Amino acid sequence: MTAIDTPARRGPGPAARLAARAGSGAVRVGLLLTAVFWLVPTVGLLISSLRGPADISTTGWWRVFTDPAQLTLHNYADLMGNSTITHALLNSVLITVPATVLVIVIGAMAGYAFAWLEFPGRDWLFLLLIALLVVPIQVALIPVTKLYATFGIFGSLVGVILFHTAFGLPFAIFLLRNFFAEIPRELLEAGRLDGAGELRLFARVVVPLGGPAIASLAIFQFLWVWNDMLVALIFANSGSAPLTVALQQQTRQFGDNIDVLSSGAFLSMVIPLAVFFAFQRQFVSGITAGAVK
């Protein structure tokens, strides 16, 4: 018996398939053009950092495509020989890494406590934490300056690290608490039945399952701290200033040293990009985890 070919059983017609392919192609072309548009400034900065001061001052960076002999590594050699820049680069690492690690460790522990531990005032404390998310950094600059002066840590690396840690914790706790709350209760109950304490459950169950969210938080916090200039400009002195402040001071002292600024800016950009690509898979998993049941 031959089945009757009804309209309901027919697939999309040739016109519909052609329209779908055209629409998909248009979306891809649009995404490609957007990516190229966003990459042009980065490519220009990279090429400018590889050109000499004379070439930069006379022609545009696109001239290198017709005259590749302009490319040189002298700018980066001079940059690495600049003690101010190298010391500032070290300060950036000494500020960013502890501020990121502290936020992750404290935020993960607090997120677990808000998600799975019962204690008086838990919900009110969490509401207060959410309210802290809308407090701008500028509001705390003067009070924290006075507090740091009292304790003698104004102008030090410790003061900058503590400020970044304090303002990074509300978002960290909020993010990780919501992620940890999605962990099945049965897993934690099974661990408790096996005699595991809260610290063991946190280290052996919660942290491994929360790896994508923790990686996402690490990327966010690292980028925020590494690219910051306002906090470091106020709370760091000349000996503890990070790379962003050092580049700003180079601009103020030498208005036409674009060769130093371009290479320094690209160096400052490469490190957070490397961190992002290193944790890209975990970052995407952390972003999409809450949308998939």
TrEMBL record:
It holds the Pfam family BPD_transp_1. InterPro entries: MetI-like, MetI-like_sf. Keywords: Cell membrane, Membrane, Transmembrane, Transmembrane helix, Transport. The chain crosses the membrane at residues 26-47, 93-117, 124-145, 151-180, 201-224, 230-248, 260-279. Residues 89-279 form the ABC transmembrane type-1 domain. It is a multi-pass membrane protein. Its main location: membrane. SUPFAM superfamilies: MetI-like (SSF161098). It is found in: Cell membrane. Belongs to the binding-protein-dependent transport system permease family. This is Carbohydrate ABC transporter permease. It comes from Streptantibioticus rubrisoli.
